């Protein structure tokens, strides 16, 4: 709003149009101003409707993602037990086997893989042992130097949490059993606290 004073000192006020509304120009009729205002209101209403529709669509998508998938029937106990026989590799490589599908990596297969090499550079699959707590390492490994001298050096490392982002490891077939039997039908009694795994050990 602008204020202007006349010669007599009286205040004469001129109103400015509100922000976002069309200003009435000289010679412009009320119908034209009303038409512009109507179009502006339609634009605003369209934007609001689109935003509401988008929000509803996102909410529906998130809600659908949280609902359980009912397109497939629930596996029954009988089916689960039958699959353990129908889909099992137990005995595929003999009754004494302890390495499972690693049998597929034969000398011939290694030679075939080597023939695919073009550039000759190595790609490490190792993971550095994390020793500092971080966002993705809630339980780091414990590492410390034990000795350091002119004769050599030794250190110590411990894994308080073998599972997690701070480390990686390989599990032997003797790690998991079902109904008292591990890989290839070996009884879980072959794994003891005193001597470890006499079958299906990671050292096989």
Give the topology string: H per helix, E per strand.
EEHHHEEEE
Number of helices: 3
Q: Provide the residue-averaged pLDDT.
A: 79
User: Which outline best applies?
Assistant: extended
Largest sheet: 2 strands, antiparallel
Total strand count, please? Answer: 6
Report strand %. 5-15%
Quaternary status of these chains? single chain
**Residue windows where pLDDT falls under 50 for at least 5 positions:** 2-15
What Rg is obtained from the alpha carbons, in whole angstroms?
38 Å
Q: What is the terminal separation in angstroms?
A: 89 Å
* Structural class based on helices, strands and sheet pairing: alpha+beta
User: Biggest sheet, strands in spatial order?
Assistant: 1-2
Helicity range = 25-40%
Structure commentary:
With 204 residues, the protein is an alpha+beta fold. It has a domain at 34-65. It has helices at residues 30-66, 77-86, 107-114, and strands at 2-5, 11-14, 142-149, 152-158, 191-192, 196-197. A two-stranded antiparallel sheet has the order 1-2. It has a two-stranded antiparallel sheet with strand order 3-4. The longest helix is centred in the first third of the chain and has 37 residues, at 30-66. The chain is extended, with a radius of gyration of 38 Å. Mean pLDDT is 79; it is low at 2-15.
């Amino acid at each position: 709003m602008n204020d202007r004073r006349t010669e007599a000192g009286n205040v004469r006020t001129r109103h400015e149009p509100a922000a976002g509304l069309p200003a009435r120009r000289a010679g412009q009729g009320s119908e034209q101003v009303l038409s512009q205002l109507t179009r502006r209101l339609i634009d605003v209403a369209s934007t609001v409707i689109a935003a509401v529709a988008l929000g509803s669509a996102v909410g529906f998508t998130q809600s659908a993602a949280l609902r359980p998938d009912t397109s497939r029937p629930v596996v029954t106990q009988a089916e689960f037990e039958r699959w353990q026989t129908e889909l099992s590799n137990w005995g595929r490589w003999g009754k004494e086997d302890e390495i499972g599908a690693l049998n597929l990596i034969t000398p011939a297969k290694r030679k075939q893989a080597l023939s695919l090499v073009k550039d000759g550079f190595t790609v490490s699959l190792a993971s550095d042992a994390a020793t500092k707590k971080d966002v993705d390492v809630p339980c780091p490994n414990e590492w410390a130097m034990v000795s350091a001298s002119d004769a050599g050096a030794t250190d110590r490392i411990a894994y308080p949490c073998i599972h997690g982002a701070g480390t990686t490891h390989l599990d032997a077939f003797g790690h998991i059993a079902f109904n008292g039997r591990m890989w290839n039908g070996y009884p879980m009694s072959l794994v003891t606290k005193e001597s470890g795994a006499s079958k299906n050990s990671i050292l096989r």
